[in-house]
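subagent[fold] <- orchestrator: predict structure for attached chain, return tokens only, no commentary.
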Amino acid sequence: MGFNTALSGIKASADFLSTTGNNIANSDTTGFKKSRVEFGDLYNTNVIGAGSSNTIGSGVSVNNIAQEFSAGNISYTDNNLDLAVDGTGFFVIDVGGTQAYTRAGDFKLNEEGNLVTNDGAYVQGYNAVNGIIGGSLEDLVVPTERIAPEASTELTIETNLDSRLDDVPPYIAATFEPGDPETYTFTQTENVTDSGGNTHAVTYYYAKSESPNTYQVYATVDGELEDDNGVPWLNTDQFVTFDDEAGSVSGIAFEPIYVGAAEPQVGNIGTTAPIGPVSGTFANGDTLAGSNLAVAGIIDPDNFARKAFDPTDPATYTYGNTNTVYDALGEEHTIGYYFIKQGENNTWEMKVTVDGESTYFDAGTNQDEPFLAEDTVVQFDAQGNITGSYTNYPPYGVANPVQLSITGWDPTDASATLDIDLGESTQYALSSSDTFSQDGFSAGELQGVSFDEDGLLIASYTNQQTAVLGQIALANFDNVDGLTPAGDTSWVASSDSGAANIGRPNTGTFGSIQGGALEESNVDLTEELVALIEAQRNYQANSKTLETENTVTQTIINLR
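subagent[fold] -> orchestrator:
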């Protein structure tokens, strides 16, 4: 009887030793779960009888080799295909048609683009089509083909235009003083003859007013604003509006297109009259009666006014920037957008260039057309908030609300348009700046893949685009301890574990995914080394029992 007891102890100790050794051997195995031996004592009730208090034990048996599914430490790696489950759940894999489950996430791509384990099992998940994740569990695939280009159709320019910036030339708010050059923009002088035949110098002063390209006119005679009676030589307000350098209205650069007794309003453009009359009395009694400056005699402000828009000359616009858009073939084009302050009424003219050009050849009209309609403006309210975009602006025309749109920019598609959204643009007293975005991109090659915490498989391409290719699946069980080890750090379901509950990471009770990381073995080496000593001690002690039983038996045999 003692021999059997000792043998059962030796066998149990050997199993203990083997289990501990297996734990130690797998202390660096990714996703490994340590095991422990669960012992049970044996009693032989056939000799003395059941229920007897004098029953002697018959040794020990190994009731179970149980695995402990506590989580191991998460170790971060440089491989985006390395995955770890942070929380509850197992990766689902297909091993030759059999569904198995693992916590080892050291996955690879095979030659067909499938996500696989080191032993070639297929990782299961939900593949996406055009970014829409499907609902069928299948082999997770990483498509390696390039993505097609997509033409830009809309761009957003959200800008702040510095309210402190000046029109060109700048508005003069100061009270006019002939002796103060800060109170006027430029001058011209004409000689006139009074009633006594004397010659006098009449000087006209042009001071930039609030309206675009418009100047208030003052006059002096021999340097004096008033005649001998204290009456101004030019006793009515006079204003002149010039065309721009491009001659947009008249066809002539800086042509006077309005001259009148008040600042021009919509509908006044094209109305002109001589500046004057300049009249009054001199100290000797001679008079100057009705001297006028003819429209043709008004000098051009070409040395002071803003030149015609030129994207290469920053002096011709107030603020500008460039960015990239893409045509239908994925070719890059440079979009330039420029803002020109027009007057003092919160109005900014907008210009657009494509690849440095302001116009394109329109086969329909057989002439060059601007990418953005002429006289397109952006307006703001008194608080600096954008009120809208328009074509035409006072005093040249009635402002009409428009949707900003660029035409003729795509050489592959003459009908393509590019809508502009100015968003929440502002006119604050801050340095001018803008944020730009657009919806097109060039063709791209697959550059890499990664997983986010929801298990989404995200591809990145050489054109800076990303796409969702699928989502990895997780499984859980009512009784994890009932799983059956299947080797290669995987398990299969059993009747004890129950059927797998399969779902998506970061939902319900499922844990999240840590990309570029692996779950280490949950083996504690210190604990296992102590267990190794215990197993050795138990083995030696049971061997001693066997040795003692042998000695006693020999003593009996040697009796004569």
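orchestrator: received. Logging for downstream: The chain has a mean pLDDT of 92. The first strand starts at residue 35 and ends at 43.
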